[in-house]
Structures are given as structure tokens and as C-alpha cells.
From TrEMBL:
Probable transporter of a GTP-driven Fe(2+) uptake system. Belongs to the TRAFAC class TrmE-Era-EngA-EngB-Septin-like GTPase superfamily. FeoB GTPase (TC 9.A.8) family. It comes from Faecalicoccus pleomorphus. Mg(2+) binds at residues 20, 23-24. This is Ferrous iron transport protein B. GTP binds at residues 9-16, 34-38, 54-57, 114-117. It is found in: Cell inner membrane; Cell membrane. The gene is feoB_2. Signal peptide: none annotated. Residues 2-163 form the FeoB-type G domain.
Length: 271
């Protein structure tokens, strides 16, 4: 049985280095359908049944850039068996923004924290097990450049793909938002893939301008949901998309304060 693993990460996170390390010369290069964004696919060395699908380097899964649209169309419509999310360990806070969005997709996922050679050289510390616990998904330290931990990360992705076990990240936002998302979920649950319910609910809440490519809401559904969104917006005095963005950052700040210690920072890690 073929296993498809999508490799996702920010630009400059080391994605190309990791892709080359995992696939060697067994790569096929083309374009994503209809757009001039490069599409690279390869076979995991020593595992002919495992395909690694490289996604464009992206910071987010918003509908505003071609690369982000290509990536999310692939993830939502093709639904790979697992996501291998490469994260730059020297810039972890920024990189986790994409990670938290990917986790909402309900696809089994492994986070590979890259550039660990640099993190160590800088004297910084990342508590991998704490990070794994807070994200509710396996986290592996790697150095793509030195080829350390890369095979282990890929094999972990194969393992989660086979287990079909996805993270249950369910407390990213404040209670008002979580309650509204739950209500939206009940309205749309019969129209979407159940594992992706949370992702859809967040996108509907954000009034994502391209969400109708994935889900068609009728007038009754829209007029049921819209007052819920407006009520939260009035209470917090911000638009729904900005609310999600800022609460996502708050969630990440909390995770980083628990799991990352920069050299010279006052806060000790609670290991
Ligand atoms: C240059 N450790 C270290 N130290 N560097 C790494 C690691 C790692 O684990 N992984 C990747 N890099 P890409 P995207 C470069 O190219 O794979 C480095 O965009 C340089 N180039 O070698 O391209 C990697 O595909 C000149 O660095 O990332 C690359 O995600 C001087 O991170 C950069 C210094 O990796 C980006 C670095 C001419």
C-alpha cells in the first residue's frame, strides 16, 4: 500500500535539504496544476512504498498567496496520510504559527525541529517532550544539514500515517471562540470530512474568502452562523480573522514559554 507524506514548512526552514536527504536522487519535478509553482515528489530511500510530497515553503494556510492556496488545496483535497512539518528550531515561535494551522487539519502529523546543531551551538534549549505534549503530536529533533534524526522523523511520519492517529488540538482559543467553533461544527458537520471539522469551523469563522471552494453553505446556514461571529467580534472588538491570528500567537507564546529556553533568558525550563 502506498503511503503519501506531505513535507510542509516555512521558507528557509531547511525543507529542500531534508527532502534531498530523504529521497536522494529519486525525485520527480514538475508544476502544480495550472500554476507555475514547482512541484517536487520523491520516494523515501529504502522504502519504495513511501512517497514524499514536497509542498511550497509557506508561513500560513491563508488564502492570500498562491503557494499557500496550492498547499492547502493539496492537504484538504488530496489528504495525504501524514504531514511531516519541518520547523526551524532557531526561529521556533514564528514557525509554530504554521504548525498550529496544520494540526487543525486533523491529518496525522510529526514535527521535525530542524537546525538543532545551531540551537545547541547558540546554547539554547528546546524541551522536545514538553513541545510534543503541548502540541499533542510527535516531535523529533533533526539536523537536515548533518543528516541527523532525519530518517527517524520520516519513519515516525510513516508510523503515524499507518496508525491514522491525528492530534486533538482543541484548546487554542479562548472559551468564547471555542464555544462558537463548536456551534459552527454542528451546523457544517454533515458536509465535511469529520477529521477536518475543526479546520473548516475556523475557516468559516474567519470568513475565509476561498472557503466556498471546499464547502457550500446555504443561506439558512449562513444566517445562522453570522450572528454568532458578529457577537464575538463585538465582544472582543476586533474582526474574526484578527481574533484567530492573535489568539493563535498567544497560544504559541504560552507553548514556547514552557518548552524553549533561550540562553541568557531569566526563565528556567521546567523539565
Ligand atoms: C544555505 N543545520 C544548519 N546549520 N543549516 C541548515 C540545516 C541544519 O540542520 N538545514 C538546512 N540548513 P533550505 P528551504 C546557506 O543554503 O533547505 C541550511 O527554503 C548558504 N547557501 O544549508 O534551502 C541550508 O528549502 C550559504 O543554507 O531551506 C540552507 O526550506 C551560507 O539552511 C538554509 C549559509 O535551507 C536553508 C547557508 C548558499
Amino acid at each position: 500500500m502506498e503511503i503519501k507524506i506531505a513535507l510542509a514548512g516555512n521558507p528557509n526552514s531547511g525543507k529542500t535539504t531534508l527532502f534531498n536527504n530523504l529521497t536522494g536522487s529519486r525525485q520527480r519535478v514538475g508544476n502544480w496544476p495550472g500554476v507555475t509553482v514547482e512541484k517536487k515528489e520523491g520516494t523515501l530511500k529504502g522504502h519504495n512504498e513511501v512517497t514524499i510530497q514536497d509542498l511550497p515553503g509557506i508561513y500560513s494556510l491563508s488564502p492570500y498567496s498562491l503557494e499557500e492556496v496550492v498547499s492547502r488545496n493539496y492537504l484538504v483535497k488530496e489528504k495525504p496520510d501524514a504531514i511531516l512539518n519541518i520547523v526551524d528550531g532557531t526561529n521556533i515561535e514564528r514557525n509554530l504559527y504554521l504548525t498550529t494551522q496544520l494540526l487543525e487539519l486533523g491529518i496525522p502529523m510529526v514535527v521535525a525541529v530542524n537546525m538543532m546543531d545551531l540551537v545547541e551551538r547558540n546554547g539554547d534549549k528546546i524541551d522536545i517532550s514538553k513541545l510534543s505534549q503541548e502540541l499533542d503530536c510527535p516531535v523529533i529533533e533533526i539536523s537536515a544539514l548533518k543528516g541527523k534524526g532525519t530518517k527517524e522523523a520520516a519513519l515516525k511520519a510513516v508510523e503515524v500515517a499507518k496508525s491514522h492517529h491525528a492530534a486533538k488540538i482543541s484548546q487554542t482559543y479562548t472559551k468564547d471562540i471555542e464555544t462558537t467553533l463548536k456551534k459552527i461544527e454542528t451546523v457544517i458537520e454533515n458536509q465535511v470530512n469529520h477529521t477536518m471539522l475543526r479546520w473548516y469551523a475556523v475557516k468559516v469563522f474567519e470568513r475565509d474568502e476561498r472557503i466556498d471552494e471546499f464547502i457550500k453553505l446555504d443561506t439558512a446556514q449562513k444566517s445562522q452562523i453570522e450572528p454568532w461571529i458578529q457577537s464575538v467580534e463585538e465582544k472582543i472588538d476586533d474582526d474574526s480573522e484578527s481574533i484567530i491570528t492573535s489568539q493563535r500567537y498567544d497560544f504559541i507564546t504560552k507553548i514556547v514559554s514552557h518548552a524553549v529556553k533561550k540562553k541568557g533568558s531569566k526563565h528556567e525550563l521546567s523539565i
